[in-house]
Every structure is written in structure tokens, then in C-alpha cells.
Amino acid sequence: MMRCSIKCLALFVWENKKTMKTIAIDLGLKRIGLAYSAHKDLVTPLPAVVRKNRNQASDEVKKVLQAWEVDVVVVGIPLGGSSEEEMKRRVAHFMNLVDFKGSVFYQDEAGSSKEAEHMMKGQMKQIRDGRIDSIAAMIILQRYLHNLR
Predict the structure, then answer these.
(1) Which of 2, 71, 95, 100 has its CA 20 to 30 A from that of 54?
(2) In whole angstroms, what is the distance from residue 72 CA to residue 80 CA?
């Protein structure tokens, strides 16, 4: 039996489907940023989910995943740090509530929120409506897709 890394598995899935519909999640306590890609080179931020409680948030994320007919979810977490395992546990619990049947991959989110804020500097006031969270999700998904190349 051939052993395959997560990158190898993700590449296999990409190459064996005409379009791989992927959503990235920047999971926060107040807002959940979302970004979508059906192409390896194009990522679009989606409206963020404002989190009132975990059941409401997971229901809204589930609706988004179903509406976009998503195959893969990429979740941003701080990889390599002391909180990595705890974050993976929290993400697994959240995705269990979402009841997503596709593949879930992790991508390092280090600096994505700061990068998103920097990208938006001067474009708008720091309105906490989730736009920055979804741009952070876009950055996470861009990194993930770049790593597949």
C-alpha cells in the first residue's frame, strides 16, 4: 500500500476532479471568515458569519458549504505552536457540528489577520463586520493552493 502525505492526497483529489470547490475558514470567537475557490488560481472572500453561539454559527457555515457544493474545507490554525493540538480539537468539534462529509485540511494561519488588515488599510475604517476575517480566510486559502503547486 502506498503512503501519501496530505499534500499528495490533496493533489490527487484536485487532479481527479474537473473543479475542486474549496472553502477556507478563519474560525474566530466573534466572526468566521470564509473564502471560496473552484480554481487553483482564483480565491474570492465571502460574507463572514457573525458568531452568536456555536450552534447558530455551525448552522450558517453548513448552509454556505451546501450552497457552494463544497468538496474541501481548509481551516486556518496556528501550526507548530503550543496551541496547535487544542485548536485542531476545537476545529474538529466545530466541523462535527457542521456535519461536513468532505475532506478537511489545515493551513497555517500565522499573520493572515494582520496581512488582511494591512491589505485593507486606507480602503475602509476598521469596521468589525467580518470583511477582514474573510480576507484572512482568502489569504489562508491562497497559501493552501500555493502549497499544492
Answers:
(1) 71
(2) 22
- 140 vs 11, higher pLDDT: 140
Question: What average pLDDT does this structure show over 40-55?
Answer: 92
> 89-108: per-residue pLDDT in tens?
998 999 999 999 999 999 88
Summarised one tens digit per residue, pLDDT across range 53-67 is 999 999 999 999 999
Distance of CA 22 to the CA centre of its chain: 8
**Residue 7 identity:** K
Domain ranges of the chain: 6-148
Judge whether residue 7 has pLDDT over 70: no
Rounded distance between C-alpha atoms, residue 36 and residue 143, angstroms: 13
C-alpha cell at 19: 473543479
What is the assigned CATH class of domain 6-148? Answer: alpha beta
